[in-house]
Amino acid sequence: MLNVLVLGGTTFDSVIRLKKLPEPTSQTIHSAPFHETVGSTGAGKALNLRKLNVPSVLHSIIGNDLHGERIIRFMQQEKVDFVYDIDPKGTERHINLMDEEGNRISIFVTQSSDKPELDLSRLEKLIQGCDVVVLNIIAYTKQLILLCQKHKKPIWTDLHDYDGSNAYHEDFIEVADYIFMSSDNLKDYKSVMRRFIEAGKQLVVCTHGKGGSTALTKDGHWIHTGIIPGYPFRDANGAGDSFFSGFLYGYLQNRTTEDCLRFGTICAGLCITSAELVHDELSERVLQSEYEKHYSKQ
């Protein structure tokens, strides 16, 4: 199987689950389930790929601090091949407020450096040795775009809740061959998808939460896949990264775009039953079993 390099995206997060997100008024919430865990988009993708036996390396920046040490230990525990550089601003931390409908408010209580000092020699070797680059929309990864282009690596990116015009995303959009995003902030997601394909992208995928997902191929073919309704909801944190990873797994297996969407749907469905970024029991065997269960008769 092809080797994947995931660039950017590790935090140490506090996750608070509420029945409903708070209204914008003064109030006291007397009880709310709470836990701390490793978070962010690179961690979510790397954890899923590891459980699916996709050869992969995660690079990120962390602080020389307690939270950075906890991320290192967690990645070792999960057998993720984790390479990092030290951020002088410390480990990025988020507080995520999650409600029972899957809505989220993310508060970045600390932020990582935009341009930290990186071991570019080591990173160039990692880029040279991979087959696919997942370029997450973390500011420091912009330093690595020229190296990815130099070695002509296909670039996958995840724009998350892109609004169709945010200038921050433009560098990632310009260099990406494969683009993922959600329709949360898009009034007309199809026009944005068409725009990307017309700009020469190989594939664009847009997720819609409970509305499923839509792909647009380079030849203009639209494919829509609904969710699997049977998964009991617990926590939506990490569902998008699980979807991305399931899709990429299918792509690396030379499956059809429709099958890739289905693999992504399964991984996301399993993820929402868990309080973590990835379902604890996820594996190739479980993924294939779920595929047979839900799609074998279609």
From TrEMBL:
Superkingdom to which the source organism belongs: Bacteria
The UniProt record lists the keyword Magnesium: no
Keywords in alphabetical order: Kinase, Transferase
Kinase in keyword set: yes
Short name of any one Pfam family annotated for the protein: PfkB
InterPro entries the UniProt entry points to: Gonadotropin_bsu_CS, PfkB_dom, Ribokinase-like
Molecular function GO labels: hormone activity; kinase activity
Sequence ranges assigned to domain Carbohydrate kinase PfkB in this UniProt record: 3-276
Gene Ontology CC terms, in alphabetical order: extracellular region
Name recorded for this polypeptide: Carbohydrate kinase family protein
PANTHER family (alphabetical): RIBOKINASE (PTHR10584:SF166), SUGAR KINASE (PTHR10584)
